C-alpha cells in the first residue's frame, strides 16, 4: 500500500490547479483526498488517499520536504488544465488569458495528448485575450502538434470553460471568439448545451482548398475522386477548415459507415494530392432527409468520436447533393448534433453538449 501511495504522489498528473480565477478549482488545504475530479460520470472511480495517511507525509518521504505534495504543483513548472469533451471529442483546456502566446509548444501539446504517456486528448485548446474587438481568442494544437483553423466540438468546450472561469453559471450567455476561421459566436443555452453560429460555408474550390475541378458554379459537388483505385463521389466544403464529404463510391450501394475500415481509408483521403492543406473526411449514411449518420477521419487527429465542423460540412454537402433538408440530426460515434443551414443568412448553426471531465496539473 505504501508503494502505491508513493507512486500516486510521484505521478506526473497531479490534482491542484490554479485558484486564480474560479471556484471550479479546489484548494488542497480544503480537500483532504487526491482525486481526479470527474464530472457527471457515475462509473468514474477516483484515486483516494485516506486521511490517515496524509499526502504531506508521503511527499515528505519522497522529497524530504515539509511542503504538501499538491502545493508543489504551483508555479511555472506546472501547467494547470481542465479536460472537457464534446460527444467524446476530448480536449485539454488551458487558461491563457494572461498572454497572447500559448503557454506550451506544439511538441509539448502532442506529448500531453498521448493517451498512454500523457493526459490523453484529441487536442489542446488555449483561451487567449480577444483581438479585433472580440471577447476571447481560441487557438488549438492537434494531437499531432499541427494547428487547425477551428474545431466545432472544441469551441463548445471552450464556451463552457470560459463560463467556468468567469463564474457565469445559470445564465444564457454568448460571447465573441476570434479563431483561425474568423469570428465564431457560441451561446450557452439554458439546458447547458452550446449553440454556435459557425458562419457561412465556403464552397469555392480554390478556397476550400482543393485541386479538384469545380463542377457546380465554383464548387466541387458530387465530383469523382479516385482513392486507392476506388472512385468516390465527394463534395468539398470549408467551415474555416477543409472537409471532403462522401456518401459512397461511384455506382455503389448506399454507404454503410460502420463497415468502413476508417484507419485504412482515412489517411489516404487526408493526404491525397488534391488537398494541398490536407483534409478532414466525413463518410455519411443517409437515414432520412432529416437524419444522417457520420464517421470522421480528422486531419491531424485521426478517427475521433465527433467533429463539429465535419457535421456542419456534412449537412451542407447533403443539401447540395439532394440527400437532406437544411435541419438535420447528425449521429456521430459519440452522440448526436443538431445542425441547421439557414437559408436566410447562409450561416450554419450547430447545437450540442460539452462537459467537464476532470482538472489537474502536469509538469512541463
From TrEMBL:
SUPFAM superfamilies: Diaminopimelate epimerase-like (SSF54506)
Any single GO CC term annotated in Swiss-Prot or TrEMBL for this entry: chloroplast
Pfam families: DAP_epimerase
Biological process terms in GO annotation: lysine biosynthetic process via diaminopimelate
InterPro entries: DAP_epimerase_AS, DAP_epimerase_DapF
Domain of life, source organism: Eukaryota
Top enzyme category: isomerase
Alphabetical UniProt keywords: Amino-acid biosynthesis, Isomerase, Lysine biosynthesis
Known pathway: Amino-acid biosynthesis; L-lysine biosynthesis via DAP pathway; DL-2,6-diaminopimelate from LL-2,6-diaminopimelate: step 1/1
Family stated for the protein in its record: Belongs to the diaminopimelate epimerase family.
The protein's name: diaminopimelate epimerase
Protein's organism: Salix viminalis
